[in-house]
Design brief:
Layout: E1 3-12, E2 15-25, E3 30-34, H1 41-49, E4 56-61, E5 64-65, H2 71-76, E6 79-82, H3 94-101, H4 112-119, H5 136-148, E7 154-158, H6 166-181, E8 185-189, H7 193-198, E9 202-207, E10 210-216, H8 217-222, H9 224-230
Parallel strand pairs: 3-8, 3-9, 6-7, 7-8
Antiparallel strand pairs: 1-2, 1-4, 4-5, 9-10
Helix pairs in contact: 3-5, 5-6
Bound molecules: adenosine-5'-diphosphate and magnesium ion.
């Protein structure tokens, strides 16, 4: 097992949002978390990455307990996180964004840049442009590329396809599959539940801060209750 979250509680101030959430991600897996708006999906990713401090429960990554560690220490252990919004610096160039991405792993240095440009060839000709000039889809690609500068073993993605045109949605999901092929495990929170579950090994349903269902992507897609509640029939 790569990541194990066990009985996790977390929230904001006095407001508890997650109530005993348990999930796991195995090495090289793609796992999708679906659930209604406000159910705590983003909060779960923030609690795993240390952006929000868990108040109870365990988060184990590899053989390390990481609950309560600072986000930069968690990143150095090999978890990269792409938040839903503000995941690139608009006023910096593509290249500067990528270099900033590697900031916490100076041991890796600039050596990863060529490899990342190889994986994201569309960014090469734009590397001197400011990120603010990119389309929504290109910006999301840059956010993925930035996260990969850290050479993670686990990538956390918060609604990577949100707000993108249908053609770009496919591009982003294809890129996610490609990243996974290189051996990176991926935990995705997605509104495009159907598309995401189709290419996931497993998935979870999160509702009102609790994990309600766990199954293979295929079986969740076939589950009548999941279809009715979360997949639009
Ligand atoms: N920074 C915050 N401060 C206080 N409450 C928040 C904050 N962020 C989210 N919440 C609340 O936490 C709950 C879960 O939000 P979130 O994790 O973003 O859900 P989801 O990602 O599933 O839509 C919501 O009720 C939301 O209003
Ligand atoms: Mg969210």
């Amino acid at each position: 097992m790569l990541l194990e979250v066990c009985d996790l509680d977390a929230g904001y101030g006095q407001t508890q949002i997650l109530h005993g959430v348990s999930i796991r991600v195995d090495e090289r897996e793609i796992v999708t978390i679906i659930g209604p708006n406000g159910s705590g999906k983003s909060t779960l990713l923030k609690a795993i990455t240390g952006v929000v401090r868990p108040t109870a429960g365990r988060v184990v990554f590899g053989s390390d307990s990481i609950a309560g560690l600072s986000p930069d220490r968690i990143v150095r252990k090999g978890i990269s996180y792409v938040p839903q919004t503000e995941n690139v610096f608009p006023s910096l160039t593509i290249q500067e964004n990528l270099e900033m991405g590697a900031f916490l792993r100076r041991d890796l240095g600039r050596e990863r840049l060529p490899r990342i440009y190889e994986m994201f060839p569309d960014l090469v000709s734009k590397r001197g442009d400011r990120a603010s000039r990119l389309s929504g889809g290109q910006r999301q690609m840059l956010a993925l590329a930035r996260a990969l500068m850290l050479d993670p073993t686990l990538l956390l993605l918060d609604e990577p396809s949100a707000g993108l045109a249908p053609m770009m949605v496919d591009g982003v999901f294809d890129k996610i599959a490609e990243i996974n092929q290189t051996g990176v495990a991926i935990l995705i929170v997605e509104q495009k539940a159907r598309r995401s579950l189709q290419q996931s090994h497993r998935g979870y349903v999160l509702a009102t801060g609790q994990t309600r269902l766990e199954d293979t992507g295929e079986r969740l897609l076939a589950n009548p209750e999941v279809r009715r509640l979360y997949l639009g029939g």
